[in-house]
Amino acid sequence: MSDLPVYPLLRTAGIDGLLVSFGDTLSEPANRAALAFRAALEREAWEGVEEISSSLVSAYLRFDPLAVRHAELEARLRGLMASRDWLQAEMPQGRRLHRIPTAYGGALGPQLAEAAQVAGMSEAEALLSLSSSRVRVTALGFAPGQPYLGELPEVWNIPRQQALTPRVPQGALVLAIRQFVIFSVTAPTGWRHVGQTAAPLFRLGAERPFLLAPGDEVEFPQVSAEAFARLQADPEGGATWETLA
Asked: Is the link from the previous residue into 8 a cis peptide, with omega within 30 of 0?
């Protein structure tokens, strides 16, 4: 008998949490399933459930053990898991397509040339690839509103650095393993800093405090360093969005 897990996989997370996973590594179908399953849980609105969230390939549910029995909630989850092929599920409604102007290379993206070399591309080829790619917000994490976005073309399946960059600024666009991250705070990173954005990712007290949401799609069109300097005075950082059909 195989010891390999069978997905979707339901696991207990402490005394008040349940985790439903659709894979052990990031893939488009597994992320799609996690997002669709999270949306389905939100529609169910089960009594006693206090929090619902998703990660790259999983959906998490936190509940009040005094309001609902663990066994009852697990049975409901298993029924929902078996109700359809979640790897083929439609994406949730209400998603957005964002366009976030980005200055690549130079002082604002100091590791673009290095990343291009690791990927086996010229800097010009890398710039064209990155600025024309559309990626999905697969999850938020690490800092408020900070997105993981993927997947980039296979050529960008490059490893993280062996050493940390001590500091990248808020708005830094970094990449590794076919993913982008935009930093919502100043922090160290092992990912390569290829560009810089000016759009605020987190606004405390706003009706929608996070600019991006899991399932949204994002493009990073290129702007010059001069245009980027002007965008820094724009409260939106030049970012625009439209609702996806």
From this structure: yes
